[in-house]
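Slide 14.
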Amino acid sequence: MTHAPRGTPPDDLPEVTTRNRIARHLTEEFSLTFPADIWRYLATAFADVPALSAEITRLRAELGGVRLDRANLAAAALATIAAYHEGEPDPLSYLRDELDAQGHDVRGHR
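Slide 15: predicted structure.
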C-alpha cells in the first residue's frame, strides 16, 4: 500500500477508497475488542470518505467540461481574429457559433 506525502492530496481515488474500506474494517474489528466512543467517532469519519470521493469524481468531470469549453472558446476567438485579418465578411461568426454551441443566447446580438 502506498502513501502520499503529508499535505499532498491523493490522486488515485480507487486507492483512497480501498484504504478507507480497510481502515473501516480494522476499526470494526478493534471496536469489538476495545469498545469505546473513539471507535464510533472514527467509523463516522471513515463513512464520510466515499461521499467525498464521489464529489471529487463529479467535480473532476465537471472541470474537464469547463476546460474543454474554455479551449473551444479560445480557438473560436483566435479563428475570429484570423478571419478578421483575412478580410472575411463575417469574422464574428466563429465566436457566435461557439457561444451558441455552449448554450449562450447570442440571438439578440447578431
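Speaker note: Residues 15 and 92 are 47 Å apart (CA to CA).
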